[in-house]
Amino acid sequence: MSTTKRSLWKIDAGITSACVLGFAASYYAYAVETAKEDDDSYEAMCDISEHISCTKAFSSEYGKGFGIIPESSLLYVPNSIYGIVFYTLVAILSTINKYPISAAVVTLGILSNIATFYLAYLLYVLNNICVICVSTYILNAIILILAVKKHRKLYRNGTNKNKNKKKKKKSN
């Protein structure tokens, strides 16, 4: 295995690992939210105190549709569902070592980090710390860093079609 392929494999493994952890955290968040909806006396492991509570975040007005999607919309689902979809999609796409796909993963990483800042602000507004939420925020940052690193490596290694065309013109 060449050095480039090995380093890409390591980056892919890092992204996939972060996605698996993010998927697990999102699934746990979904399980906690649905358990709380079914049983009001349910207390999750992530509920440590009055101000460190994941169920407080999940059951808030911002816990579904990011607090901006109307209840009448098909997209009005728990935020954890968006996390499950995001981490699954990024894990799948990150296994493809093509420049345009890596650009899509970087774009998804940027969008997830924008959502992270928005949701972190909402936690501040709620005067709450959500351990599961903060964990996913960290994972989103790791995914973005690794996706950018992979994207740059693919660009430098000539998988960008425009770069290859320029090399061909110079050699003629």
Structure in words:
The protein is built from 6 helices and no strands. The chain is an all-alpha fold and about 170 residues long. The protein has one domain: Up-down Bundle (de novo design (two linked rop proteins)). α1 runs antiparallel to α3 (about 80-95). The chain starts with a helix and ends with a helix.
Kindly report the CATH topology: de novo design (two linked rop proteins)
Percent range of helical residues? 55-70%
Distance between the termini: 31 Å
Q: How many DSSP H or I helices?
A: 6
SSE layout:
Layout: H1 3-38, H2 54-58, H3 79-93, H4 99-125, H5 131-156, H6 161-171
Helix pairs in contact: 1-3, 1-5, 4-5
Write a brief structural summary.
The protein is an all-alpha fold and 172 residues long.
Keywords:
single chain; 172 residues; mainly alpha; de novo design (two linked rop proteins); 0% strand
